[in-house]
Write a structure and sequence with these properties.
With 175 residues, the protein is mostly helical. The chain contains four helices and no strands. Helix 2 runs antiparallel to helix 3 and helix 2 packs across helix 4. The radius of gyration is 67 Å and the shape is rod-shaped.
Length: 175
């Protein structure tokens, strides 16, 4: 089959002739391919970036969880210590309340006893005052009797009798 062969021409005529691709045709076909490649690269870049962001976000969340766990453990330890301190303080308060109540009861007893002693001292003071009055009256009585005896000793009966009458009420009060 040579190119000059008429049979070759029929085969060539039956075959569609290929045209050389023009710039419009290449643009029409190439542009979507380029856009598809660019879109694929963009999606891939976005996926990588999104994965990095997700990984960073997960790492931040892990760090935050670790800090939260640490803080929770510290707060729990503080809560336990505080509860223990409250229990100890409550026990101390109960003991102090019992001591205070015992002291208050003892103080009440002492107060009652002091009131009894004060009343007894008031009675004794009244008795002493009465006794003091009697002692004063007795002193006056004895002084009058002594003066009367001195007057009798010198023979002055009238002065002796006057002195005895003057101290008679004191002698009655002293008796």
């Amino acid at each position: 089959m040579s190119p000059e062969d008429p049979a070759d021409e029929d085969v060539a005529a039956a075959r569609p002739r290929r045209r050389r691709a023009g710039s419009r045709h290449r643009l029409r076909v190439g542009l979507p391919v380029v856009l598809l490649v660019l879109a694929s690269v963009g999606v891939g870049w976005w996926a990588v970036r999104s994965t990095d962001a997700s990984r960073a976000s997960a790492e931040r969340a892990d760090r935050h969880r670790a800090v939260t766990r640490r803080d929770t453990r510290a707060l729990e330890a503080t809560r336990v210590a505080t509860a223990q301190t409250i229990t100890e303080l409550e026990a101390t308060r109960v003991a102090r309340t019992s001591e205070r109540d015992a002291i208050a009861a003892a103080l009440y007893g002492v107060t009652v006893r002091l009131n009894e002693v004060r009343d007894a001292l008031d009675r004794e003071a009244s008795g002493l005052q009465a006794l003091e009055t009697r002692v004063g009256a007795l002193g006056n009585c004895l002084q009058g009797v002594s003066d009367a005896l001195n007057a009798l000793a010198v023979g002055d009966n009238r002065t002796a009798l006057t002195r005895l009458r003057a101290v008679g009420s004191d002698c009655d009060a002293a008796a």
